[in-house]
């Protein structure tokens, strides 16, 4: 058990098995020392934890919780990509957070904090801090409020 696994346990987080792709894509791909994850949605125990648009059906806090769950699922994909050793992650290079938003909602960056803060907490500041884009969109697959993709550098 490595340091990242210890921090996950201390936070009470058990990573799910990396879910298989839902369509014609792979859940992650590696080139050189970089791993690119496919977008991860806020699924827990096989079902989305929330649905709808942030700023309408989903509160800011619920959106942040959804982004946090997306980041947990990103870590599950990275665990698969590292053969189970999350300590092989040298750095999260960048994440992109897509937020299904009500037309007048303009706090996508605050929703994205749910994912960014989880990655910092679990991976530590040096490894978990990253560049980020937070993008508002009209709709996401399965009507989920948030989707997160990541680029990670491996040791």
UniProtKB/TrEMBL annotation:
Q: Which InterPro entries match?
A: Endoribo_LPSP/chorism_mut-like, RutC-like_sf
User: PANTHER family from the entry?
Assistant: ENDORIBONUCLEASE L-PSP_CHORISMATE MUTASE-LIKE DOMAIN-CONTAINING PROTEIN, ENDORIBONUCLEASE-RELATED
Entries under Gene3D superfamilies matching the protein: RutC-like
Pfam family membership, one? YjgF_endoribonc
Give the organism the record lists. Answer: Euzebya pacifica
Q: Where is the Endoribonuclease L-PSP/chorismate mutase-like domain?
A: 6-153
Superkingdom assignment: Bacteria
What's the protein here called?
Endoribonuclease L-PSP
